[in-house]
């Protein structure tokens, strides 16, 4: 007679059982293993094995839900620390921004900040192929997988163990047995050890995503910075080549005057000095241009190659220099409080703080008992032939077990583990505060640099205009015999240096623009 009955106590796991036979006893002894309670039931009722198995699953789920609801999380809940921040950004020489000035220069996407179409194309290419950015994406994938690994400890672990065996004895007894057992192991998280660990892993995932945004921000600013440097070197090379042509004509004129007895040999040598100085600049500038192109190529995730140019930084006209883009003397930085949310490195530092806070809870939970629940449910189905008669061999088995482990003496490991977790939290708090202060320092430096670079460029423009007039006047005076050729050479030499300085000042203005955008947390937005 086949029969089965549910288990009324233990882990709430329902099993099937059969009337014992010699063959059934052998199967039972091979399949059942240690536990707090185990057994085989026989009898007769009207409940099907499928209903019993469903009752077992419902009972196990009920236990897990009850444990989860009744559990608590030890350790402190995270609260953002109150880090004092200044009410305004420091920018000497400029009025402090009004409290209602909520808009920031960094709120603009990078393609509205950098208007050169060629630069925009380079940035888009870098965002697709840069290796640092691809590595950052893989770190996010790994961190997301780590969250899944950590969170899996909160759920029961179920495994199946199928087995098939066949046997024939000397007494012509044949048997074929198939058995299937399912093991369930669950560690009750009464004190939030696994939940706190999952909280820490999620914070680390968010921090990794913020780190990727920092890589994006840095990549955009690096490509823009190197591109502006490249255009500045192009402008300096253009100025040097123009000066070479001018000085070659001046040397020819001086040599002709020497032939007519008007100039001296010293005038010719002095004219060559300015020419030689300009010629010496050209190969050095070409070296810097090639190395800057290589740096941009690497940022693009490509092998070194030439970089296509867009609009030049500026064009020299008889009325002075005309720049391809007009930069305002001041840019709105926005509210200081918004910097905490806009800069991804600050958010990353805060997520590290969240993870360190959660790890304190993990360390505290280690002091409390660890409760484990184990269960086994399964059955065996087979057929035995003895003296020509078939004997069915069917049975069900079950086993449940509960264990509790309470640390008593660990040689100070648990206590020192908690000290370590608290120390890591304090360290993360220091780094978080330091990151905020460094961010405000970066913004202040960039505001000062942008404002002063703008002023320097304006004065260098005026200096170039004055020196252009000085060269024109000195040439007129030299041709009229009023001034010496040394006066002309001094004016030309000063003009060449001033034009190079003007090109560098324009580059500094662009570089400070990029740094201000970066320091305010702009450039990572999609």
Radius of gyration: 40 Å
Q: Taking all residues together, what is the mean pLDDT? A: 83
What would the principal axes of the Cα set say about the shape? elongated
The order of strands across the largest sheet is: 1-7-6-3-2
Ranges where pLDDT stays below 50 over 5 or more residues in a row are 1-50, 95-100
Q: How many angstroms separate the termini?
A: 71 Å
SSE order: HEHHHHEEHHEEHHEEHH
- Name the structural class: alpha+beta
The counted number of beta strands is 7
* Largest sheet report: 5 strands, antiparallel
- Count of helix runs: 11
Helix content: 55-70%
Tell me the strand percentage band. 5-15%
What do you see in this structure?
Helices cover 57% and strands 14% of the residues. It is α+β, with helices and mostly antiparallel strands. The strands form two sheets. The chain has a five-stranded antiparallel β-sheet with strand order 1-7-6-3-2, with helices on both faces. A two-stranded antiparallel ribbon has the order 4-5.
Features:
526 residues; disordered N terminus; alpha+beta; 11 helices; five-stranded antiparallel β-sheet; single chain; 57% helix; 14% strand
